[in-house]
Design goal:
alpha/beta, 324 residues, 39% helix, 10 strands, TIM Barrel
Length: 324
């Protein structure tokens, strides 16, 4: 049975390994890789699992040409399209999710960036929320300017979501209307604004293991706090509509490799979870995940919060209480 050398193991766990050394993780059989990932998860997070949920607050008509995305106007995908939600409706949807045992409530909008008047509308909604609820709100508004990000921080937002999607080398194969470096720079601006960065990627696009590991190291270099791990759920009438789903075991190994490279960072399993993992969803914790998105996704159905809480309890784990 393959084993990592003690020197490489120590370097990986200390954050000093190179991507080439981390590739040696792929030599490990499932049992050893998952056992190491679970030990790291328990060392950093104990039995605590955090939940988040999102609101699709503006849907479709995005000018970006991301090949996987149902919301791109370049892809004629049958989805609901609507402008930014009315302030009263957005506030009510936030309050509805605040009744769930979720630590983070994400407001997500399609498009390259939220416009100034739309940002002002969201800030009014935030100001009208109870303080305890406002502290749980996250935002995903695209490539915002440093000034706009600072305005969100002043408005009570603590976390901003902006994915890198894939490695720098692979990214041009999935999007031509935005550069990977622009995404990276947005994440840097997020952290400079004093916001927590929720930044991850999408797997199953045709990327290699080298791409996946390169992404993990980019996230480590950026110092992100939470890493959403998404699996491609091919949407009809997108360029990637015919791509097969990742095998469940490969998806779990992605989580486990990321846990070894990011031993103390929250790994949050999000989009594509039900389709890709099926009845192996409980294994995400054994593979090192300490968080997940519950409820529906942007344009597809997810899992009911009651079902996810039962899955967590059955694994001998507990949902982290929502942050105050």
């Amino acid at each position: 049975m393959p084993h990592l050398s003690s020197a490489v193991s120590a370097e990986i766990l200390s954050g000093a390994a190179t991507p080439a050394q981390a590739l040696q993780l792929l030599q490990l059989p499932d049992e050893e890789l998952f056992a190491g990932a679970e030990r790291l998860r328990r060392a950093a997070f104990g039995t605590r699992i955090s939940l988040c949920a999102i609101i699709n607050a503006r849907s479709g008509n995005c000018g970006m040409d991301c090949r996987f995305c149902a919301q791109s106007r370049h892809n004629d995908t049958p989805i609901d399209r609507f402008p930014l939600l009315d302030e009263g409706l957005l506030r009510q949807r936030i309050l509805d999710l605040a009744r769930w045992p979720v630590g983070h409530i994400g407001i997500v909008t399609s498009g390259g960036a939220l416009q100034a008047e739309e940002l002002a509308s969201v800030l009014r909604v935030l100001a009208a929320l109870p303080e305890a609820v406002r502290g749980r709100v996250c935002t995903s508004f695209g490539r915002l300017s440093p000034d706009a990000l600072r305005s969100l921080a002043r408005g009570g937002v603590r976390r901003f979501h902006h994915n890198l999607e894939s490695s720098r080398a692979f990214y041009p194969r999935i999007c031509s209307t935005q550069q990977w470096e622009q995404r990276r720079d947005t994440v840097r601006h997020v952290r400079e604004a004093g916001l927590s960065a929720c930044t991850g990627g999408l797997f199953g696009l045709g990327e290699s293991w080298e791409d996946r590991i390169d992404l993990a190291f980019s996230l480590r270099e950026l110092g992100v706090d939470s890493v959403p791990i998404n699996f491609l759920h091919p949407h009809p009438q997108t360029p990637l509509a015919d791509r097969p789903l990742l095998a469940a075991n490969e998806a779990l190994r992605i989580i486990a490799v990321f846990r070894h490279i990011l031993p103390t960072t929250t790994l949050r399993v999000c989009g594509g979870r039900p389709e890709t993992l099926g009845d192996r969803q409980p294994d995400i914790f054994r593979a090192g995940a300490n968080a997940l998105m519950t409820g529906d996704y942007l344009t597809t159905h997810g899992c009911a919060v009651e079902r996810d809480c039962a899955m967590i309890a059955a694994a001998g784990l507990e949902v982290t209480a929502p942050c105050a």
